[in-house]
Amino acid sequence: MDLVFATNNKNKVKEIKVLLPPSIKILTLSEIGCEEEIEETENTIEGNAKLKANYITEKYGYDCFADDTGLEVDALNGAPGVYSARYAGENVTYEDNVQKMLQEMKGKTDRKSQFRTTIALNLNGEQYLFEGVCRGEITTEKYGNDGFGYDPIFKPVGFKQTFAEMDLNEKGKISHRGLAVQKLIHFLKENLK
Ligand code: IMP
Q1: Candidates 84, 130, 133, 165: which one to mutate for ligand 1, based on the most atoms within 8 Å of Cβ?
Q2: Could you give phi then psi for residue 25, rounded to 5 degrees?
Q3: Distance between CA 131 and CA 141 in Å, rounded?
Q4: C or N: which end of the chain has fewer Cβ atoms within 10 Å?
Q5: pLDDT tens digits for the chain (193 residues)?
């Protein structure tokens, strides 16, 4: 089956393609001719995932899923959360956000945090939500070159490496998005028999 993944983030597409069975073909936004930016105007992760999935289903008529992710840091009362992409300001790079986080966390001993992903799936006129959480800690400096976003400064519980030091398969087994996608895949397999 064809299913739109409401993103143009190549890292996310790569991560999800390694987890999906070959029977599910992922189409990205540019592949369905959606070139416009879908503005994430909601103030929750779940709200933004729903907003993106609904935009595509309503405007383009496709069954579709969308994800939204936030990094929630305990010592920052859950910030940056839904604002993770804009933590250092509008139109910033991943590096800007990483540097801001390292700065904000300077000297803090409680470095516990979590990534949280919600996936909203629109299928045959119904909407379903799937969540994945990965607990870990913010490191005091950057480690590794793989991945994206906050990966070089996030070390998941039980591991010695950051996400940026893991390969895609390894990250996918334990990551927030990987866990949410595993729930999505389980659901699709059960419901598309
Ligand atoms: P998005 O809105 O789902 O694209 O995610 C918001 C921000 O969270 C992104 O700009 C990234 O900085 C960060 N992010 C999302 N997923 C990951 C991940 O798997 N690793 C590291 N950072 C991530």
Answers
A1: 84
A2: -100, 125
A3: 28
A4: C
A5: 889 999 989 888 988 888 888 888 999 999 999 999 999 999 999 999 999 999 999 999 999 999 999 999 999 999 999 999 999 999 999 999 999 999 999 999 999 999 999 999 999 999 999 999 999 999 999 999 999 999 999 999 999 999 999 998 999 999 999 999 999 999 988 887 6
Active-site residues: which are they? 68
- H or E stretch covering 12: helix 10-17
Residues 6+ apart with CB under 8 A from 53: 6, 64, 65, 66, 120, 121, 122, 127
Cα separation, 17 vs 1, whole angstroms: 14
Domains defined for the chain, CATH in brackets: 2-191 (3.90.950.10)
